[in-house]
Amino acid sequence: MWENVISVLITAQFIMRLRACLGICMGLGILLLTGCQTLPSDSDSLSDVSLTPLSSPVLPSEDSRRSLFWEPAEHVFTDSDEEETETAETDEIEKKAVDNAKPVNTPKLVKIKIRNQDKQTKKTNSKTRLGGKKIGAGDDLWHRIRDGYRLQIDDNESIQALVDKYLTYPRYFDRLTKNASPWLYHIVSEVEERGMPLEIALLPAVESNFEPRARSPRSAAGIWQFMPETGKYFGLEQNDWYDGRQDIIASTDAALEYLQRLHRMFDGDWFNALAAYNWGEGNVLKAIKKNQEEGKPTDYWSLDLPNETREFVPRLLAITSIIKNNLDYGVKLPSIANTPYFESVTLEQPVDLDIVADIVGLNADDVKRLNPGYRGKITPPEDDTESVHSLALPIGKANLFRKRVAALDAKSLLPEIPPAPIASLSLTQRDPEPAKTSSTSKSNNAKAKTKSYRIRKGDNLLTIARAHNTDVATLKRLNRHLNPRKLKVGTKVRVPLARD
After folding, report:
1. From 387's CA, which of 78, 123, 163, 425 has a CA 20 to 30 Å away?
2. What gap in Å lies between CA 89 and CA 101, rounded to an integer?
3. pTM to 2 decimal places
4. Where are the domains of the chain?
5. Residues contacting 420, CB < 8 A, separation 6+
6. Which CATH code fits 449-500?
7. pLDDT digits (tens, 9 = 90+) for 222-275
8. Full 3-state SS string of 448-496
C-alpha cells in the first residue's frame, strides 16, 4: 500500500517539474524570437538589420504643458523650423487653450527651471536663426539691445501676468518688429549715447507700437505720444504743414531729454521717472508725498497709481523680458540689422515728397513713411516756419539725392501749383490758434528771420551761439535735427539774423 502511495507522489512531482520546464522553454523561445528583430548578434551586419523605430517619449498632458510654458515642437524656434502659416482661427484656438489651461497656483520656480533646461538644449549653434536666416550675434540689433539692459527687477506677478498675455498673441512681435525696424537703430544709438538703459529704447512699443502716426483720444501723438503742450515745451513744432511729435528724430531727442530730466527729478529711480512720463511728474510727486506722510515706501510698486500708469512699467518690462528670452518663450523674433537704416538730409527749400521719390528711385509711400512728421506731401515753405527741416532717406539714397538735386532747378522740386497746407486735425486734436492777420504774419516772419551758417573746425553750439548773439536753446530749436554731440565741419545750421 505504501509503495503505491509513494509511486503516485513521485509521478505527480515529475509532472509538475515537467510543466515548469516546458514553461521556461516556451519563455526562452519567445525572448529569442523577439530579440532577433531588434538586437543583432555580433556576427550580423547593421546594414542587414531592420531596426524598429523608438516609441515617442511620454510628454506632459496638454494642461501641464501650457502651465509650464512647454511648447510643442512646431512652436519652438530652431534652425530646422519652416515659416509658419498660422491663420487667425488658429491664433484664436491657441488663445482659448492657453486661457483655459492656466493653473491657479503654478510654482514659479518650476517655470524658471523648465526655461533654463530648454535654454541649455537650444544653445547648440553660435549662430541663431532669426527672421528666416542665420546671422551672427553682433549683426542683429536685438542682441545689442539685450546687452544694454540695466533695469533690475525681482519676480513680480503683474509682469508675469502681462508676459502670459503677450504670449497668447504670437504675431504681436512680428508687427512690432515691422514697425520698429526703420527707427530702432537710431533710437538705440541715441539712448546709448546718453548712457540710459536700453529698455528705454523699447518704450515706444508700449506707447504706440512704434507707429509714428498713432494718436490717442487725448491728442497725444507720435511714437513717444507727446501731448501738444508738452511737445511745444520741448521744442516740437506743430502747424498745418508739420507735426514734430510725429518726426522720429525730433521726437526721440525730446523724449529722451524729458526722461533724463525726470530721472534726475526722482533721484535716479527709473520706474518712478517712467510713471511720471505717463501720468505727469506733479501727480507722481503727490503720490510720493502721500506715502511719505503715511510712512509707506515710495517706490513705484508701492505708490497709489491709476490703472494705466500701474500697468505702464510692467508692460515695458514684460516686452523686454520676452525679447530677452524669446527662444525660451517660443517667440520668433525677426532680425533687425545692427546698421543705420536712414540718413537725414538738410533741406534748403521746400520739396514735394513724390518728386523726391522719383529722383532717388523709391516708392512715394516709402518716402512718406520715412518722413511721418510732414502732414502732407510738401515740406513746409521757408516763410511758414522758423526751423530748418530735413528729409530722412535710406542709406545710399541720401548722397544720390544731394547729387541730383544739385543739378536741378529749385522749381523742379515742387509741383507747378503748390497745394494748400493740410488742416486735418480737429480743434479737439490740437490747440486752437488765432487767425493770422497780415500784420501779425509779418511780425512773426520778422522774428523768425534766420540765416545759414557753415560749421567750422572747433565750433560747438556755445561758440556758435555767442558769435551770433543768441543762446544754445535757440540754436537747438532752430536746428532740431542737429546732434550737438556730432557736429560735422561743413554742415549748415540756421542762426538768427542780427536785430536792427
Report:
1. 425
2. 18
3. 0.61
4. 73-329, 341-426, 449-500
5. none
6. 3.10.350.10
7. 999 999 999 999 999 999 999 999 999 999 999 999 999 999 999 999 999 999
8. CCEEEEECCCCCCHHHHHHHCCCCHHHHHHHCCCCCCCCCCCCCEEEEE
